[in-house]
Model the fold of this input.
Amino acid sequence: MKSDKKGNQYRVNEQIRVREIRIVDEDGSTVMPTRQALDMARQQGVDLVEISPNAQPPVCRLIDYSKFLYQQKKRAKEMKAKQVKQDIKEIRFGPQTDEHDYNFKLKHAKEFLEEGNKVRAYVFFRGRSILFKEQGEVLLLRFANDLEEFGKVEQMPSLEGKKMFLYLSPKKTGVAKKSQQKKDREKREAEAKETVKQNPETQIEEPANGGLFANVKGGEDILKKLKTEE
Done:
């Protein structure tokens, strides 16, 4: 029988002063007087450990308290290991960033968000370039808009000293995937166009409802293009 002076995270043995408790084990649970449970713990050479004090009645286990603490620490360590590490990646802009540089950094930001990282984008104003702070704000708002599918805005552009920051966090749901039906339809459309390219004399019949292209954005244009190629 272990001493009940084992810290105050859990109540153990005589520290449990309620009239009755619920004992849980592999076979289920049983409500009994606390004194009876203490006698059972002594007979088995283990401890009576309160694991859910707010339940009615409180829930306890008959277990070696040292072993119980070890199991709790092991479980906490496993939970921590399963948590995805989330880093903050920085993207730096100038107030007059050109289109090529913008697209390059936009691509990296998408990759960071898809990997589950947060993104802190900022515009650095050097010297008199602080006069272009409105231009920097527009750039960051465009950046947030272009990343709408991949991340959500945690903090709108705000000026801190010579830097204007924008914070983005990854969307938990991720990028929406195409349905199988849509994939199959797109595959059929691609095959139809390939057939026309290889056999220009092939006639494409257009059903009254528009056929394969009826529900496709720009479907009418595709049909017109195919007819022209014929």
